Amino acid sequence: MSQLAVEFAYWQTTIFKLVMAFVAVLIPAGGTVYLYLFKMVSFMQSRLGPMEAGPYGSLQLMAEVGKFAQKEDIFPARADRFVFAAAPYVVLVSTFLLVLVVPFGPDAAFANFDVGVFLALAVSSLSVIGILMAGWASASKYSLLGGLRAAGQLIAYELPLVLAVVGVVIQAGSLNLQRIVQAQIEGEIFGWGALGNPFVITQFIGFFIFLVAVQAELAQVPFDMPIAESELVSGYMTEYSGFRFLLFFIAEFATANIFAFLASVLFLGGWSVPPFVTDLLGIDSYSNAMNVIGPIVMATKMLLLTFVIYWVRFTYPRFREDQLQKFAWKFLIPLALVNIALTGFFKVAF
Amino acid sequence: MALVPGVIKGLGVTFSEIVKTVTKGPETVQYPHAKEDPVPRARGVIALHEDNCTSCMLCARECPDWCIYIEGHKELAPPRRAGGKPRSVNKLDRFDIDYGLCMYCGICVEVCPFEALFWSPEFEYSEPKIADLLHDKTRLGQWMTTVPEFEPYEAGAQVKGKKVPR
User: Fold this and answer.
1) Interface test with B, best of A46, A208, A215, A316 (most B CBs within 10 A)
2) Which of B11, B13, B22 sits opposite A43 (nearest CB)?
3) A196: alpha, beta or left, given left = phi > 0 and alpha = psi -120 to 50?
4) What average pLDDT does range A103-110 have in this prediction?
5) Are B50 and B119 in contact (CB under 8 A)?
6) ipTM higher than threshold 0.85
7) Strands B68-77 and B134-135, bridge-based pairing
């Protein structure tokens, strides 16, 4: 923000960033829940979905939040009260930590970490602890089984997630997400630079693995064994009600968006638009205007990716537990390793 | 690998359904604002045409869960021909159907030999109190206005058609 005429004090930017973090987490979460969870799935089932609250049902989410806020706050009799109460916040904190690393423009980022990719992948694993806490503290068989399954699954799919990103990191030569975006703007496809070089073109295997692993990390169908509602009721969330359940709910869908943000940064060029567009508009790819255009571009890419996430979610039936583990260990991880080897080979060759 | 085409096909199915709903509209109706057309011979509520009822009790006796209550008394009606003897007829005092008990089997409508009972497709008569589900003969008579014209059965059906009195 150094280019602005007004200099802001540290506390002012901090408050601004805090507010923006809530905006960046909650607005996309609400938007995608309405767009995809309420409307798209309804259209897939040849119905209209919520239509009463607000025009075309757009305020349905407010109604839902109001409903959850009114509900009785229940602790199971034998629950570990502190751990039980803390678990949803641990999950939510991992969501908010995750959004910190995402760049929305050349300067519009909460923080510019040199090891942004590393931090993102590290804090995304924090949610496992929250989920295990929830499963254990609920003192319920359903919750415990759900929590253990979630832990097993999240650890199994953490690996392909990390390995898929390694290919991008090798190609960009940096762990800094801003540098990764820059590498995609300045990249050339065999000397043709009009499109830049979004890594999805070269890292399509990594992109596929990343999306699959994200689906599993979020415990979305077809990887929803931990919260399988038909057998485990709702897994680690079984004993939660009211506001605490709402926190899990927000965390789940907000994390989906932030992973979509991350995927668009890593594979689709992030906040940048292809260089031929910036040439057409006559602006520099790193100019101040991109701080305004960037978030819109990011939101568009995020909506596209979350569309794919929810499309898959509402199409496929659930994996069995053993199929789920086999898919990670016997297919995705070897594939990711091959991808890394190939990327390394081509990086040296070209 | 035979798995892959099916996986892709599944995505196609859900996507084409989205397109269908957006372009051609959904299969459902927005109920309180719009109502579905009732299916032929829909079983919503039983209507009573009191003039045809002879309080013969056939419906009450055939009713599997005994939800029909009939009371009547004999009355003298004027003779058909001048100078004749006054006729003795059954007058209906009470004809109640308890919809809290009714299981909508339609046997009463089937057995009524005098075409006094009819199916109406109306279904909006829920009550906060279960006792209010007992419809008396005036209420049952009011349903008569909602009875649709009888649609003939398929060719070869054993059951005779009904003529709806207007």
Assistant:
1) A46
2) B22
3) left
4) 80
5) no
6) no
7) unpaired
